[in-house]
Amino acid sequence: MSLIGKLIYLITVTRPDISFAVGVLSQFMQAPQKAHWDAAIRILRYLKSAPGKGLIYRPNRHMDLVAYSDADWAGSASDRRSTTGYCTFVGGNLVSWRSKKQTTVARSSDEAKYRAMAELMWLRSLLLKMGLLVSKPMKMFCYNQAAIYIASNPVYHERTKHIEVDCHFVRDVVMKKLVETPFVSPSGQLADVLTKSLFAPNVRMCTS
Known about the structure:
By secondary structure, the protein is α/β, with parallel strands linked by helices. The chain contains seven helices and five strands, in the order H-H-H-E-E-E-H-E-H-H-E-H.
């Protein structure tokens, strides 16, 4: 438990790339097995092999807000809950990230990603109150075409009634052109590392 606590500290301040793995391990803190200990040691080995993967902030001439949002629908084999992941960049620098197992079971991949989009709206509002946003719309990249369509279409969707509050909230800010939701291909989805296990080349792409 002490080791997991230290790893959670790392993902909070400087190593978002281990967020998903540590999040999975933290679910077994009450009754850890040897396999969980071995997995934690593998995370430590990864950290030791890549000490330069921490956050680096560089000056830029802009303060554009760009976010990547993803959700691994029903990815948990034990309870079929989805894992939401998002990362937000201000001026090209990563300032916020999260890998979170959703508290309810999403009934579709659209719903899972839509909940992630709603959380990002709250973050945008927070940054706005801090005076960190410029007039340009926030770009929130998502490769779920259905979620993008629902966010942009003013017509009510009966099949999304169970997430009606999220739908109306997100659609409202999109219609006001406060947020744009461009499509990004799976190969360019930086939030993937926060929602699922990836092969080494994909991890390098997300953390470069």
